[in-house]
Amino acid sequence: MKETVTGYLLEKYNNMKGSYTCYRFLEEAAALGMKVEMVGALDLCAGGDAVWNGSRRLEQRDFLFNRYFDGAVVDCMSRLTSRSYNPTDIFRYYRNKFHQLSVVAGLQVHVPVSLMGTAALSWLSLSDKLGSQFVAKGTTGSMGREVFLISNADDLSRLLEQHGERKEWVFQQYIRESSGRSLRLLSIRGRIAASIIRESEDDFRANVALGARTSLFPVDDALEELALQIYEKTRLDFVGIDVLLGDDGYYFCEFNVMQGLEGVESASHKNIAREMMLTIQNDFK
Fold it and tell me: Exposed/middle/buried for 229, CB within 10 Å: 0-12, 13-18, 19+?
């Protein structure tokens, strides 16, 4: 192993005050003797083969831990390192929830009927295919901020008014029996490091960021196989997989290539941040 493994954690800002996940990664990296610096995409500038953070030119390091989606700055930071987590190209591709659906086609898991389109589509054409209630999910949203339950034509019209006719959505069958409940599997290269159930009393969305409570959920063979097959198809090192609970079994919901840790660590009492940083460190043996 290298004497000291070095890396950058790319986030939105240099200082992510209040971000549990960012500082847990930095804490555990330091405990493992790694040298990891958090840099903010909005605090950087680049030109040629150089990236500056203020007046300081950033040096070459071993790896990039990417928690920022957009812009050429991600490519510039990738060029300063020999390896990215998750790999930059597949990170970007699978950020899109519609692209994720191709991964689970043919797997032994139910998949809600799903369509991609804009809110300019007619209510009748969507409800005919998806049912009288369906879910609209922004293709790249997170923490439940772009997830809406569409129950009538007025709901769809509001979506159009608020977000415009160019924004793409994944419209998806509503799994009513899973309303306010979902599983989150934290997968490290296809191995489930933690499995929790998230439950909300007053929202059909079960996001920790929206106040859902969390508790442990037992892992069975079907969940283990789902996590392994998603890894084999995507090669995503670290991913949070969301699963809905239907009367007839598990339903794939989506996976998150920039998963948070607070809910999963507090419910599982596992040091997931350390497991992830140790995985990276071991790559440089």
Answer: middle
pTM tops 0.85, yes or no: yes
Identify whether residues 228 and 209 lie together within a single domain. Answer: yes
Tell me, yes or no, whether 193 lies in a domain.
yes
Q: Model confidence over 20-50: pLDDT tens digits?
A: 999 999 999 999 999 999 999 999 999 988 9
The token pair that represents 173 in the structure block: 């069958």
Residues 154 and 226 reside in one and the same domain: no
Q: Give whole-number Cα distances, 5 to 2, 57, 235, in Å.
A: 6, 19, 22
Domain-located, residue 279 = no
**pLDDT at position 1, please?**
65
Q: Are strands 61-66 and 81-85 parallel, antiparallel or unpaired?
A: parallel
> Looking at the structure, do residues 14 and 60 belong to the same domain, yes or no?
yes
Residue in this structure with the two tokens 């699978």, named with its chain if needed:
94
